[in-house]
Amino acid sequence: MEGILSGIFSATYLAAILRISTPLLLPSLAALISVKAGVINIGLEGIMLIAAFTGATVGGLLQNAFVGALAGLAAAVLTALVLAVFHLNLRGDLILGGIAINILGSAVTVALGYQLGGARAGGLSLPPISLPDLNLPFLRELPLIGETLHTAIGRQNLLTWIGLLSVFGVAFLLYRLPFGAHLRAVGENEQAAASVGIGVRRTRYAALLLSGLLAGLGGVYMSMGYLNSFSRDMTAGRGYIALVIPALGGYTPLGTLAAALLFSAFAALETRLGSFDVPSQLPQMIPYLATLIALTLYAWRRRAAA
């Protein structure tokens, strides 16, 4: 048992948590911004899939990861714009529009994947392409913890660092900039915000587009960071999970980061336990245990707030 614990809770385990948390953290921040503006973006799953597909396809065809990533982000923002026009201009139901985006993202990526690559499973027969990892060799020079720290964070993907920095960027935007104050005011009481001259529709447009950008970063990471190719429905429900993570984090950026890391820690633990000689039922129960813990924490926060 001691050997199993030392093998699980190691620098490699910490590195896995950061790697797994990236495609959860970025769409969770997207959900946080949209919730604060009063227009929750239900279509995060579909936006992530479209961004992942576009990034891997364009990047693979051109053999340029950064051009592919930009194309994926552009596709994500364009999809969010479609949702914004449907809801804010055409007065369509936001929840139904988000569900339609999710269905569209799953269907169109499979259809286009088959047309472009001939893969019925929704994959692409293109050369693999990925965004670079950031190597921080100077961490090895730190006394006592240098090698451990380098193993944990010294070779993380570029988008992992962007995700972590985005937490502080979103916090600065929401609580230090006038736009953040306007966004929160619109989400809390749109009539009061409009009465003092705040453009409600303009602010919500910006919130939805920004949420699309962040969700797009998560999708691009899935196909060009976490993996180096696209496969059918590869987001595996992360866009839906991201909708509840801000609630567990108290609707704050740092709380959202903590909740995303908690989910990722359980996911990484499931993977690590699977490599040891332990009963298979033990790792399989971990996601359900994580769900129970999350629901307990959420109920506790609700009771404390009441």
User: Within the CATH hierarchy, at the fold level, what is the topology?
Assistant: ABC transporter involved in vitamin B12 uptake, BtuC
Mean pLDDT metric:
86
Low-confidence parts: none
CATH top level class name: Mainly Alpha
Would you list the SSEs in sequence order as H and E?
HHHHHEHEHHHHHHH
Give the overall silhouette.
globular
- Approximate helicity band: over 70%
Give the beta-strand count.
2
What is the C-alpha radius of gyration, as a whole number of Å? Answer: 20 Å
N-end to C-end Cα span: 42 Å
Strand order of the largest sheet: 1-2
Question: How many helical elements?
Answer: 13
- Mind telling me which CATH architecture this is? Orthogonal Bundle
Helix/strand structural class: mainly alpha
What key phrases describe this protein's structure?
ABC transporter involved in vitamin B12 uptake, BtuC; 13 helices; two-stranded antiparallel sheet; single chain; globular; 2% strand; 306 residues; mainly alpha
